Amino acid sequence: MAAQFAPQELMSYYHHPLLDLASPVGPGVLPAADMTPRDFISRFHRSNGKKLKLGIGNTIYPIKNKIERRSLEVSMINAGVSPASFDRVNLMTKGDRGFGNQLYLKEVARRVGRVDMVGCFGCGVGDEMLEVARFLRPRRIVGYEYLNYEQAWTYATELLAQQGIEAQFLQCDLRNPVSMPVERADILLSFAVLEHLHSLDDTFKNLRPLLKNDGWFSAIWGPLWYTFSGDHIAGELGFEHGYDHVVLTASEYIHWYSVHPRNADAIRRGEGTWLDMGLISFAQYAEYIDKIEQHFGAVGWLAWAISSEGLVWRVAHRKKWERMLLDNPHIGPLDLLLKSVAILVRSSAE
Hints:
Shape: globular
Order of helices and strands: HHHEHEHEHEEHEHHHHEHHHE
Strand content: 15-25%
Radius of gyration: 20 Å
Helix content: 25-40%
Strand order of the largest sheet: 1-7-8-6-5-2-3-4
CATH architecture: 3-Layer(aba) Sandwich
Oligomer: single chain
CATH topology: Rossmann fold
Largest sheet: 8 strands, mixed
Number of domains: 1
Number of helices: 14
Number of strands: 8
Structural class: alpha/beta
């Protein structure tokens, strides 16, 4: 049975017990080794078939999302989600289909327009910066990344230069202020990064100086921790295990995590996992929104991707679902069902 907490023990935001057990590393020396994967070039070039599939999806899914929204809302209301929570949501999808980076960037470009300077934090090997360049057509893009992907960054810089776009990559730990002078961005963007921020406040306060006073903060992230396979790996063990990370106590989960096929070999080799490196966020949806608005300004556009697996799991395991909510009074049905979020904020003046 999962650990239970009396209401008086709950703070404004729940303190996840894994924060005490996992002991993630704090800010320190940046990883020096170039971790560019061998197949990195393939990430920059899509096959014709993939391009065709994306093109069809970008046409069909906006229509499909509008048609399905009402039935999706009904399913969520039946699960106990308050209808009032839908009021701020501009786009709602069932599952990740219809929620891709291209559709998101298209919406960002429509609302923001062409910009001069873009900052991409958590940019990885840099392939997503080509998508940013395609939709926003900036003069310059700066990528911020904790790990070292020097070979891939050189390749990305060359590809962007062919489009007349200047690129710069900075390896930095955004839990600390960026030490070298950097031109402030018109928009800060990230893809699948916020769910890895162990402390939202630490990172956001160091991102804010990188953004112009009237700039835009933009992010698409997920899965959120409490959703189906929200730890990124529970669902890999099968549908029945999709909420193991919520059902298990913290100590049980640490063991479960260490023997999981995704991690067991790496741990035997003495390599760090996401949990070891503090690259997992236990924030609830409400905390993400609150912290973003606190540091950057009021949300102007919002999208949700609802877990289709979570909706099915709730029906298949109704008693276990109810037990999860009873054993974890800090969360609600929305936390268990909300898989991914996309947001756009017009920054408030400092």
